[in-house]
Amino acid sequence: MSMTTARGDEGMWVFNNLPLETLKARYGFTPPPGWAEHLRSSAVRFNNGGSGSFVSADGLVMTNHHVGADTLAKLSTSDKDFYKTGFYAKTRDEEAKAPDLELNVLVAIEDVTTRVNAGVAPGMDDAASAAARRKASAEIEKESTQKSGLRSDVVTLYQGGRYHLYTYKKYTDVRLVFAPEFDIAFFGGDPDNFEYPRYDLDVCFFRAYENDKPARIEHHLKWSPDGAKVGELVFVAGHPGRTNRLNTMASVEYLRDIGFPALLDWLFAKEAFLLEYGKKGDEAFRQAKEELFSIQNSRKARVGGLDGLKNSTFMAGKREAEQELRARVAADPAKKDAYGAAWDRVAEAQQVAARIAQSNQFLERGRGLDSTLYHIARDLVRLAAEKAKPNADRLKEYRESALESLELELFSEAPIYLEFEQAKFAFGLAYWKKVAPDSPIVARILSGRTPEQAAAELVGKSKLADVATRRKLAEGGLAAIEASDDPMIKLALAVDPEARAIRKVREDQVEGVEAANYALIAKALFEELGDKVYPDATFTLRLAFGAVKGFTVDGKAIPPFTTIGGAFEHEKAHGAQPPYVLPKSWHEAKASGALKLETPLNFVSTADIIGGNSGSPVVNKDNEVVGLIFDGNIQSLVLDFGYEDAVARAVSVDSRGIVETLRSVYHADDLLKELTAR
């Protein structure tokens, strides 16, 4: 287990516990007063799982193209495919409103560990303790939201060792400003994904609005006129999704032996289905493309992560660290009595996780009921049931503090393509039946029908694609839901008791046990190391740091920077065949002589990042933008489980490449002026 003090540039640090001593000792840098607050307040979280930053006083937000791709797909039509052609609003009136995008900006962090644990009475088992903590968290969130009007989330840190209240200002009127063509945003496609050198302009700009006007932003990042230099200290402020560095060996071995293999089997199957569906024609390909990219990205990431877990040297290091800590605990009678059984209890929880894994994934998480319409139906069914309960007794996603965000997505005007939804639903049922041929739930859902027949009836006859229908059902509450003849509502009602039962087992016997016992392990570590231990990622704002630095693989030195000219060379080296085809706009800019080919386009650094950091700003010591995180190299995929800086690198779009292409390729003069205003 790698619950250790940070090494080198390791760490995804919470903003109320930054590694100031390390920065001073390693880089001679002490952030001046207000530096961290400014960076924290400039950082933005996207509700679809990415990061971003404010880069102008008028609400301009920078992120990745692949973070904005979901919105691009939802704004596109068969006649206007912004995903393919790109988008640029030359005036504010032309900025296109995203149908269901929410941005969060962290306002404050408060340690509420004592309050969360206050309801845990002596002698409570792990399940009861977990229930008490959930109830306390709900009460804290409700109180905070009512008092501040802000989104309020109680966040579990150190797997239960600490609980912090994060409050966020929300922006729900978000409009698209600029996106390049997909072919340059994801140049090299799946073959180059998680590789380096890279040549991608993976950038997208949105604007946050309030009261139908561009939001006035006090804290926004200024643009560096010079970009980054080799060896320079840089910082990344973003929202890494999830790491498992603090997990016990039993938990990591569960992922290696059960969790990841099962996930990968499904990802490969889903990828094959989407590729085949896209062959039906240009419109079918357009509808499936965004989901295909997401699946391919997850598949490649999990292959890399699993390879890391199969690395005997890496696993031996984690095992040794865990054994050393357990030995120190065992050597102290008081610590042994307090913490000694924690590792075994976590191991027992993994056995339960393994037993319910299939039902949890395919039923509760909906992998076997793969349609937007089903997930809408399930939300409507649960929303009606949960709103009838006291807030503290509700499932987390239906608490009052979360309802506004839930309803933004539930009543989204984003298009739903019924033929695609029907095909996905049939695929999900067929795959579920394949891996669980004796499942009584699958048999009940099919009721003698083939997956295709069931999908035709359940998806084809549902009316939930209509937003007005969804609103009417939500407003009608439980009575309207129970009286509904919509086949998807009926399905959600029919399977919900079993889905809830699986969820309860997981919450009580897996998550509850893990939270209680990881908290004990965390206490053992805190007694030795104090706040020198950083928590695993939780899709909350973190600060990472590192140096702009190349790496060596198989004796070959990989330089830290690539250039715009290198993109044309990369295209030529691959015969200008997909996915190595640069957009026509780029070739025109090159032919005109306007495009400066020597301009840096991408670079790498040792900053500690993972999925969720996509779209994070990379800044220098003056808090000026020098880059934009969009990927890690293939060697970085093990970072979910432990830090490595010999060859693992964070990959960024260079700020100079963004400026040069906005100027010389896209002639986005007004955007460029706003972006670089000092």
Automatic annotation (TrEMBL):
EC number annotated for this UniProt entry: 3.4.14.-
Top-level division of the source organism's lineage: Bacteria
Keywords: Aminopeptidase, Hydrolase, Protease, Serine protease, Signal
Record carries keyword Glycosyltransferase: no
Recorded family membership: Belongs to the peptidase S46 family.
PANTHER family given in the database record: PERIPLASMIC PEPTIDASE SUBFAMILY S1B
Function, as annotated: Catalyzes the removal of dipeptides from the N-terminus of oligopeptides.
Name of the protein in question: Dipeptidyl-peptidase
Annotated organism of origin: Paludisphaera mucosa
